[in-house]
Amino acid sequence: DVLYRRIDDAFLDPLNFNPESQLGVPGIMDVYRAGGITIANAPGTGIADDKAIYSYMPEIVEFYTGERPILENVPTWRCSEPDALAYVLDHLEELVVKEVHGSGGYGMLIGPTATKKDLAAFRRKLKARPSNYIAQPTLSLSTVPILTRAGLSPRHVDLRPYVLVSPNGVHITPGGLTRVALKKGSLVVNSSQGGGTKDTWVLED
Fold this sequence. Notes:
Layout (H helix, E strand, L loop, with lengths): L1 E3 L23 H6 L4 E3 L10 H4 L2 H9 L11 E2 L3 H9 L4 E5 L9 E2 L5 H13 L4 E5 L5 E6 L2 E16 L2 E12 L15 E3 L7
Parallel strand pairs: 1-2
Antiparallel strand pairs: 3-6, 4-5, 4-6, 7-8, 8-9, 9-10
């Protein structure tokens, strides 16, 4: 059996983690440790959501495989580093700044669309707790048409492919999750902020 987990580790099992949790399943970790169930998004994998970890991926890939990644990372400035912080503060209006532990599109700044008030507030946050943030260039996302009351209109999208790893190897699924920003001009595609999804078709040559 496979359990698809979408809650934080602390709430997964009230007998092993947070005893006040009403979201998890009592004893599920005991079953997991005994090999009676597979948990997709296993406990501990949340470290991969740490946006600072992302910036180290080229080094991690090379360490474990001895090869350089085929796909390059988006340039990422770790604000915990003084030189990176200085660059981010000097170019804040050009960058996207994200909380290291943030999710759902919350706690972030999109410099090109931010107001002077927003920029000033984020500068204060960066100076107060620089290790909480990373910054990246503002990417030009692709667009797809959606049907609005006024007719067809472009909206920004991103694609999340799914890669399955097993003892038999690595398999890339023929499809993925395409998230779409339903608000005109928005670069935030997260469903928690009103984003939607699109069917994703992969056409073989």
